[in-house]
Amino acid sequence: VQPAKGFLSDTAVADMAARVEALGGYVSCKTNGDGSQSAYELNINYLDALGNPDMPGEPVARVARRFLSAQAIMLTLQGVPGIYFHSLFGSRNWREGAEQTGHKRTINRQKLQRSQLERELADPHSLRHHVFAGYQKLLAARATDPAFHPNGGQEMVACDTAVFALWRISPDGRSRVLCLQNVSDQPRGLTLPVTGAARLVDLLGAGAFPVKQNTLRLTIPPYGVFWLKKVQRGL
Fold it and tell me: Distance between CA 73 and CA 89 in Å, rounded?
């Protein structure tokens, strides 16, 4: 958490560390010059880090949607995304391993048995199945459009504070995709300016959204992800 200094207050970092511990993770601390201690590293599986300690036993589908919304942000950003193995397959905290090795980082480094992994992936009710299937859908959509080229353009969009929004633009400028990720547990209504398009079509299969008078209006569901390709007028 050291890079967060200057962006997050000491209180915010302490609150985040307490939340990580409440979600089953570990906090590694360092000793400061005055003898006090402060959080240095948060050791927790990323999927579990996004959870709510006040809502244990959440439905698998909800847990997966929340995680995939966060991962979708990474996939939309300019450059080449780095996907961690355990993120792709929806792993959870491995506290048993951390206790066995005595190393807190082991919590996120479980060694999986292939046969067990394949059984869980084949189970349509399992978390691994939900996460992996959703990830496959995101990656397949990303591969279809040149707007996601690593050297393509990127323009941030100011809108609802619960929605991460940006345009991705192909290197030749011919393809533009509006990427919307709702990181909240509530639906969010958006009104955004869009010029030069009759409609936007979701690459993830949610259909087409009309643009009227250079304005796009839509509601994005809780933890929803829309990747909306701009369709020029007359097409």
Answer: 17
Distance, in Å, from the CA atom of 5 to the CA atom of 202, rounded to the nearest integer, reads 38
- Size of the chain, expressed as the number of residues it contains: 235
Neighbouring residues of 4: CB distance < 8 A, sequence distance ≥ 6: 13
The model carries a pTM of 0.91
CA neighbours closer than 13 Å in the CB half-sphere of residue 85: 6
pLDDT, tens digit, 9 for 90 and up, residues 46-93: 999 999 999 888 999 999 999 999 999 999 999 999 999 999 999 999
CATH of 147-232, one of 2.40.50.140, 1.20.120.450, 2.60.40.1180, 3.30.450.40: 2.60.40.1180
Q: What does the block give as tokens for 40?
A: 């240095």
Quick one: DSSP state of residue 108?
G
Where, residue-wise, is CATH 2.60.40.1180 in the chain?
Answer: 147-232
